[in-house]
Each structure stands twice: as C-alpha cells, then as structure tokens.
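Weekly structure sync, notes
Attendees: PL (lead), two postdocs, one rotation student
Agenda item 3: pending single-chain targets
PL asked that the sequence for the first pending target be pasted directly into the notes so everyone works from the same version. It is reproduced below exactly as submitted, 76 residues in total.
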Amino acid sequence: MKSLNIKLDSIDKVKDFVNTINTFDGDFDLASSRYVVDAKSIMGIFSLDVSSVLRLDVHDDAQYDAVKAALGKYEA
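Predicted structure, written out during the meeting:
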C-alpha cells in the first residue's frame, strides 16, 4: 500500500475527485486524523474534515503511478 497527501477544499474538487477515482479498479481509502472512509464514496468524504490535508491510501501498488498522475492536481 502506498499513500498520497491530497487537499479537497471545495465541493467541486470533491465531486471531480470521486469521478476520477471511480475510473480505477481496486480499493482506495481516505484518512483524516483517525477516521478512514472509502475514497469512492462522496458521502464518506463529506463526513471527513475536508479543510485539512487528507491521506489517500492506494491498496494496489501497481496502480499508484497512474492514480498519482490522474490526481496530481489535488496533491498537498
């Protein structure tokens, strides 16, 4: 598993992030402090503190580079 720090500081960014991450197969988690949610769930993301930096956990190391390239605009 590899991780990436991201910032989703607007509703539009969250929507675009969810649409992008859903194009990938596999499991992805978003963590804020001690809370972890499915990164493909828009409702789950809105339950986190989106004003802070979030940690995206990519469970399939083979997809990490592609995910990082697709989500680079959200890197914190």
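Discussion points:
- Residues 9 and 17 are 11 Å apart (CA to CA).
- The chain has a mean pLDDT of 95.
Action: rotation student to compare against the earlier draft before next sync.
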